[in-house]
Amino acid sequence: MIFVYALLALVITFVLVPVLIPTLKRMKFGQSIREEGPQSHMKKTGTPTMGGLTFLLSIVITSLVAIIFVDQANPIILLLFVTIGFGLIGFIDDYIIVVKKNNQGLTSKQKFLAQIGIAIIFFVLSNVFHLVNFSTSIHIPFTNVAIPLSFAYVIFIVFWQVGFSNAVNLTDGLDGLATGLSIIGFTMYAIMSFVLGETAIGIFCIIMLFALFRIFTI
């Protein structure tokens, strides 16, 4: 079934890209390139700003299918919630810039607070309502040492989700750099998840991987 989820994510993205990208171009939802930037980037002017919708839709659709068939799919539900939440922040930011003609978009403070809010909700669902059985201890690699954090674990969750999201955003460019790094990251997460027996998390990582592969053929 893992192969089926991977193939489904890939096929959905391949179908959506030729449909959505031209639509966004016709609606002039394009990227503006600053004149002081590299000249090699000028040819990318007009690249659809909301093109990430194709990948988000693929991830959502495939994850919903996986939730139906995977045993103990709560981790997928939680990770999908975070993905949709952070994706929605990006969509609103782009919408304000492109549609509302406000070059500022969401302020850094607004985005930061929204990201923290999503991370806190993730913590509450997973560790307060016990939607999943995540450990609240930090295990030191290659040792038997585990540091229990209890409710202080929320600080770690916020740092992890907000920090990783912004780290990817800082590497984002017009050449697939962020996608390439994300694929490397999700590959390792998938391997670790399957090795540790966290099949649902591994499946979600595979879905992310194959949904992102399409960008290299655009």
TrEMBL record:
GO cellular component, one term: plasma membrane
PROSITE patterns found in the cross-reference section: MRAY_1 (PS01347), MRAY_2 (PS01348)
GO biological process: cell wall macromolecule biosynthetic process; cell wall organization
Keyword field contains Transferase: yes
Superkingdom of origin: Bacteria
Localisation per UniProt entry: Membrane
Predominant subcellular localization, coarse grouping: membrane
Binding site for Mg(2+): 169
Cofactors required: Mg(2+)
TM ranges: 6-24, 50-70, 76-100, 112-132, 138-162, 174-194
InterPro entries (alphabetical): Glycosyl_transferase_4, PNAcMuramoyl-5peptid_Trfase_CS
GO MF term list: metal ion binding; phosphotransferase activity, for other substituted phosphate groups
This protein's record includes keyword Metal-binding: yes
Key words of the record: Magnesium, Membrane, Metal-binding, Transferase, Transmembrane, Transmembrane helix
Pfam (any one): Glycos_transf_4
Protein EC: 2.7.8.13
Membrane topology of this protein: Multi-pass membrane protein
Protein name in UniProt: Phospho-N-acetylmuramoyl-pentapeptide-transferase
Organism: Staphylococcus aureus
Gene for this chain: mraY
